[in-house]
Predict the structure.
Amino acid sequence: MNFSQDRDLLAYEPNVFVEVPFTAQERVSVADGLVSGNTLTSVEADFVTAGVEVGGVVLIERVAHEVLAVIDAGTLSMSAVRGREADAAIAAKAGEQLSVRVRTFAPQATLVHDLLLRLLGLSEEDSLGEEAVVSLGAMMRLECLGTLEMVYSAAASISGHHEAVLAKAALYRERFRRACREAVIGVDLDGDGRANERRRLGLVSLVRS
């Protein structure tokens, strides 16, 4: 399971789901969306079969919203983007016959997730995988930055010399590398929920026996 969700990417890059759609996996695309308060309904969509999940991003008329709950195949509870996940839901602009798209960068996040675990020396084969990570906030940030670097680098390779995309690819590459160099991650070796070690990516330092 990834450390980040699609909604987390919006804090770093609010336009990523619109700016480089060709690098995302599109799960839903309909034009009959009905929004009332925090509820989105569609006769054409099947959000369940499409694999839409809490923490996902739904674009309504190209504006990103967070998925709060999948009520049934044709109904989502959602919110305009919030500052924090714990904040109260923000009602979306009401309307009908709206374009609705659900896109995800979860496949790219999974690649970054697995890379980070390897750099930390964690492997499911050794019975120490993602469950051993205590510093979940730090790992979420690393995973977001790595995912954005991957997304914009892929977009740059597809779009050629598009200056804005190239600039963002370079920006997130540097931010990801710097964050990796600076990060210190707590690792729980004995399953008690507390960090036995503080690890840098590629380095280990013992802090508690």
Notes: The CA atoms of residues 26 and 103 lie 4 Å apart. The two ends are 28 Å apart (CA to CA). The beta strands are 25-36, 39-41, 57-60, 63-72, 75-80, 95-104, 185-187, 197-200, 203-206.
